[in-house]
Amino acid sequence: MSSAEGKTLYQRLGGYDVIAGVIDDFLMRLRSDPRFARFAGGRALDTQQRARQLIVDQIAALAGGPCVYIGRDMKTSHAGLGITEAEWQANRQHTAAALDKFGVAPREKEEFLAIFEKYKDDIVEKA
Question: For residue 78, which of 22, 29, 21, 116 has the smallest C-alpha distance?
């Protein structure tokens, strides 16, 4: 908890439904961005839905919510994908835009993005 009111980020964001909405919007943005086309190839709808659910659960849990993340660690999940710094930055921009669409306040937006930043070294491959 980092709020003066004693509420978790999860609570201040508006809970599960807001987090799920942000993630859905974020994923839609990634799917429509040609820079990320290589990540979607050959993935069944079921696999895409499972990945979406894992992201929602992970963010909700990391934000202090009641969810449990049962996925792999980020280093294992992203090993071999060759994610670049440029892709990381574009991903971050899409996340910020999704947060803006949902009217997330600046403080909560910063905290949400900080969750992603904690895993950057596990996700971006060094050139």
Answer: 116
Give the residue from 91, 96, 101, 97 showing the smallest Cα distance to 111: 96
Domain annotation covers residue 35: yes
Residue 2 included in any domain: no
- Four-residue CA torsion sign, 9, 14, 19, 22: negative
Residue 19 in domain: yes
How many whole angstroms separate alpha carbon 51 and alpha carbon 45? 10
C-alpha–C-alpha distance, residues 101 and 45, integer Å: 25
Q: Band of the pLDDT at 126, cuts 50, 70, 90?
A: confident
Residue 93 lies in a domain: yes
Q: Tell me the pTM.
A: 0.90
